[in-house]
Every structure is written in C-alpha cells, then in structure tokens.
Amino acid sequence: MMQKVVILGSTGSIGTSTLKSLATTKKFKVFLLTANQDIKKLLKQCILHKVPYAIIENTNNFKKYKSIFKKNKINLYMGLKNNINTILNKKISVCINSISGIEGLEPTLKLIPLTNKILIANKESIICAWDIINKKLKKHNTKFIPIDSEHFSIWKLIKNENINIVDKILLTASGGPFLKKRKEELVNIKPKIALKHPNWKMGRKISIDSSTMMNKIFEFIEAKKIFNLQKSKLSIIIQPSSFVHAIVFFKGNIIKILAHETQMTIPISNALEIYESSGNKLVSNHIKKLNNLKFQAPSVKQFPLLSIVELIPENDSFFETILITINDYLVKKYLLNQINYISIHLNILRLIKSPFLKKFYKLKPKNIYDIKRMIDITNNHIKNKIKIYEK
Fold first, then answer.
1. Where are the beta strands (DSSP E) in the chain?
2. Strand, helix or coil at 101?
3. Of 69, 98, 163, 213, which residue has the fewest beta carbons closer than 10 angstroms?
4. Same domain for 42 and 127?
5. Region of residue 144 (left: phi > 0; alpha: psi -120 to 50; beta: else)
6. Are 28 and 93 spatial neighbours (Cβ–Cβ below 8 Å)?
7. Where are the beta strands (DSSP E) in 9-107?
8. pLDDT for the residue numbered 279
9. Alpha-carbon span 91 to 74, nearest angstrom
10. Which residue has the higher pLDDT, 70 or 184?
11. Same structural domain, 167 and 272
12. Nearest alpha carbon to residue 166 among 57, 61, 248
C-alpha cells in the first residue's frame, strides 16, 4: 500500500528536493502540496506528480488560480489553518515541513496530530519552540526526523546509541564565501557576493546566514534542543568542502563521521528510507574527497557571531526567539541595501545584550502566542536602534 505524503512549502529548495527524491520510488503518493507565492510552480508540481490537493496562503492568488487548478482536477484550498482537518480526515504516513522562517511553526503544530512521521527542515520553529513541538510529538505519538543535513547526520549517528556515552558532537561548517577573507575586507561586501555560497544552492536568507556563520549558531541551538545536550557537548569546526556533516566522539575512544555530497536529496531520501547504490565511480570520487577534508578551528575574530555561543542559555527561554528576530530584521535590511555587511554582525552583538531584551532571557514561551508576542516586542524595540558601522 502506498504511503500518503504531505509537503509544506513544496516550491522552495527543500520541497523541490523532496519531490525529486519521491520521484525515484513508487512507495509514496504525494497527497497534498502547499505554497505561499510561487503558484505557477505549485501547479506544475501538482500536475507532474498527480497531486489531488493543494493549499495556498494568498487570497488574491486563490481567486486567480482556483479555476485553473480545477480544470486540472486539483482541489485548491485557501489557508492551511482552516482546511487541513477537512483534507486530512485521518493520519497520513509522512509530512515534510520545508516552510522557511518562523511562519513554519504553526503549520508544524497543526500537522503533528495528523501524521505518523514528520520531517522538519524548519530550524526557526525548532529553535523557538522545541519544547512545545516535542510535547505535541509525544502526545500524538508522532515520529520526528530532522532533515537539515547536520541534524539528520547527528540523528543517524546516535539513534541506536546510549546518549550517555556521547562525549562530543562536532557540527561542521564550510566557512561560506568569506573563509579566506579578513574581517576588515567585509565592511562593504555587496549582497550578490555574499549570496554566492561555494558548495550549496540555498535561498537568499539562509545564504547570508551561512556567510556570517549565524546559520551555524542556529544549528548549534537546534542540536542542543533536539538531542537534549548541554552546550559543552557541542562544538563547531570548519570543513571547507561541506562533505562531512557531523562527527560524534563516544566514550571508549570511538569516533563516527557522516559524510555525503552537498545535495539535500540525500538526507531527505534516507529519512524516507529511499536507498540508491553509490556505484563504483561515486565511491572512487568519495575516497578522493575523504583524502582532502582539511578540518580547521573557526576564528571568532573572523566570524564574530560565533561568540554568541557563550550567551546561549542552557534552559529554554525567549533568547532564541529574540536572536532569530534580530537577525531576520538585519538580514532583510542588508538584502535591501539599507545597511552594510559588517553592520549585521555588530548590530546583532550589541542588540542581543540590550538590558531591555535580556530581562526576557529568564522567561520561557508557553505557547505559539507567547512567541509571536516576543517577535513583535523585539521588532518594536530594535527598529530605531540599528546603526551603520564603517569598520
């Protein structure tokens, strides 16, 4: 019997990679796709994969495209929140959440009761609300697998191990496009340069986060929460080719390393248990890459945002929501050419230590509404406090 699949955010890079993985097997039936803006791409996906249901989140697009979807025998709905329970009247096999940003949190919470397994690539949801998500996963007996390459790798390396024998976990970072540049060379780097990641093809926001290393701070927090680890158990190391995604050191002097090419189809396919043989040519290529890994410790002087690790609280708090909100605000301004590149770093480091915001670091969100309120409070507080730094 074919397993039904729902993909939230199917038109983005993760959603597209998921559909590519699913196309290699007949084990799954794509039942529902959702999107926000790229409705033409959503329509093409639904037609190509014979998807019976689609949800969009834009009223004008819904009115414009409803009849076109209907002509192609696709049931189009407006808004996931009000329609998901109508479309899914019983649990489906798998849901993949690839919606970017904090907007992915509410759909995550909506889908957990309706799926047997949920694969999440939405780091903002996990960082801000893991405790809320985890409680719902346990309540509804829903299996969770992270599909960011680093967290999938950690999950794969330790899933059959006693967590108490884990000594250290290393998250790998490529160093992004500016690994070989000095800090003083980065003041006026233009967005088109910062967006050119050397190894991965990613969205604009995450590409900037990768260049500043903020993405690695987010991944550090994410790993800490998902695997219930103390900060001392985690470290960040640079591996420029992005071939190694995680390294785990165990008591008893055992080290496990997980490596794969820079293709999101790999963690997604493995999470869905879709397996393909590497082949002799690929094995030979992998051996060459293993012989040229070149690990190095990251420099806080070069990547000043790495110092944020020291500020991360051991316990859940509003710190994570505030950090994400500040970063989102600054990256958006940078991409609009309203601030320069170095101002992202220096404003984050200054604002995250704001006395007004620090008082929330001892408080913990109880629900999604607390998180939304904290986002509004943070945005209102920082909007007139952004500085443009020249060096």
1. 3-8, 28-35, 53-56, 75-78, 92-97, 115-120, 143-146, 166-173, 234-238, 244-250, 254-259
2. coil
3. 163
4. yes
5. beta
6. yes
7. 28-35, 53-56, 75-78, 92-97
8. 65
9. 21
10. 70
11. yes
12. 248
pLDDT tens, position by position, 18-55: 999 999 999 999 999 999 889 999 999 999 999 999 99
Is there a single domain that holds both residue 323 and residue 307? Answer: no
Residues 6+ apart with CB under 8 A from 382: 325, 326, 329, 351, 354
Write the DSSP assignment of 289-317 as a string of letters: HHTT---BPPPTTTSGGGGGGGG--SS--
Written as six digits, the tokens of 71 are 């002509």
Co-location of 30 and 177 in the same domain: no
Which tops the pLDDT comparison, 182 or 73? Answer: 73
Please, which residues bridge with residue 30 across strands?
5
- Same domain, residue pair 200 and 268: yes
The Cα 289–Cα 283 span in angstroms is 10
Write down the mean pLDDT value for the chain.
93
Residue 26 is encoded by which pair of tokens?
């007949």
Residues in CB range of 129: below 8 A, 6 or more apart: 105, 365, 368, 371
State the average pLDDT over residues 294-303.
Answer: 92
**CB 218, CB 152: distance < 8 Å:** no
Nearest to 378 by CA among 306, 330, 316: 330
Indicate whether 293 and 391 sit together in one domain. Answer: no
The CA distance from 160 to 228, in Å, is: 15
Residue 255: how many CA atoms within 13 Å on its side-chain side?
Answer: 4
> How many domains are there within the chain?
3
CATH number of domain containing 330 = 1.10.1740
Domain boundary among 279, 311, 343: 311
Structural domain harbouring 332: 313-391
DSSP string, 245-271: EEEEEETTTEEEEEE--S-THHHHHHH
Give Cα separations from 22 to 4, 179, 194, 236 (angstroms). Answer: 11, 35, 32, 32
Q: Say how many C-beta atoms besides its own lie within 10 A of residue 40's C-beta.
A: 13
Last residue of a domain, one of 294, 311, 328: 311
Q: Based on the domain organization, do 153 and 245 belong to the same domain?
A: yes
Q: Are 283 and 289 in contact (CB under 8 A)?
A: no
CA distance 153 to 43: 33
Q: Are residues 155 and 301 in the same domain?
A: yes
